[in-house]
Q: What sequence folds into this?
């Protein structure tokens, strides 16, 4: 487990995300090695990962050299102002055209993995960590943050749509990761295998069985949006110990934190 401290330092989790990938790359074996770490997965701290299911998937994909695996979406992107445009679950680009993103300066739609779990094979981790193009993107973003702070503006402004001051790369680290990798692929540096697990990488729910929020299944890979400790304990019982699902117990443990002791 690789955990970076102060991930929201100065309100810029995006830049810290890049440094997480650099730290992960430092743990990889030398390129061409037949042993050592083969993948790295960046996971939100409010997520539960079913490692057994993940390992089974990775064994099936062991021959894939350049793997990007997760819950996939598509969006256009303007890296000059760190703004996505035309986001969609589908690759056809309908929203991109509807929102006239090309006229706004956005690159055409590309795939990216939603940030609750982003998994890359070792060659792509190395690319993100050592690419001059990616480093230039992050350096420019850091300069914008420094300029904003020097001008007296807080980096984080909770007033969506009404934030004042120069724009910075403060959100959508997962979109930027997809942008970097898709740009490398377009330049012919590698061919990426994008593996979609949208119905198996979910946000936690106790009743729903469809959409982004649904209750876990036996083949679930990751469950996001666990804001209380009881949620992880409930999932461990469900997916490890075979405890039957109960909407009532789920609600009590996941949302009301039944693990808080009665004596507390």
A:
């Amino acid at each position: 487990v690789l955990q970076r401290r102060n991930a929201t330092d100065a309100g810029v989790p995006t830049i810290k995300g890049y440094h997480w990938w650099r730290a992960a790359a430092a743990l990889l074996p030398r390129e061409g090695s037949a042993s050592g770490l083969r993948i790295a997965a960046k996971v939100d701290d409010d997520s539960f990962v079913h490692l057994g299911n993940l390992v089974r998937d990775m064994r099936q994909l062991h021959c894939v050299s350049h793997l990007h695996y997760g819950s996939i979406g598509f969006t256009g992107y303007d890296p000059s102002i760190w703004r996505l445009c035309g986001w969609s679950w589908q690759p056809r680009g309908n929203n991109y055209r509807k929102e006239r993103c090309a006229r706004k300066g956005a690159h055409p739609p590309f795939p990216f993995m939603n940030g609750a779990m982003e998994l890359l094979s070792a060659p792509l981790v190395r690319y993100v960590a050592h690419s001059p193009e990616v480093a230039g993107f992050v350096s420019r973003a850091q300069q914008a943050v420094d300029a904003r702070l020097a001008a007296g503006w807080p980096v984080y402004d909770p007033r969506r749509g009404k934030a004042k001051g120069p724009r910075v790369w403060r959100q959508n680290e997962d979109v930027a990761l997809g942008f970097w990798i898709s740009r490398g692929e377009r330049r012919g540096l590698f061919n990426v295998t994008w593996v979609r697990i949208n119905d198996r990488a979910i946000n936690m729910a106790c009743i729903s069985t469809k959409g982004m929020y649904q209750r876990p299944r036996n083949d679930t890979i990751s469950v996001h949006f666990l804001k209380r400790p009881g949620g992880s304990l409930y999932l461990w019982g469900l997916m490890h110990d075979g405890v039957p699902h109960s909407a009532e117990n789920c609600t009590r443990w996941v949302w009301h934190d039944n693990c808080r002791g009665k004596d507390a």
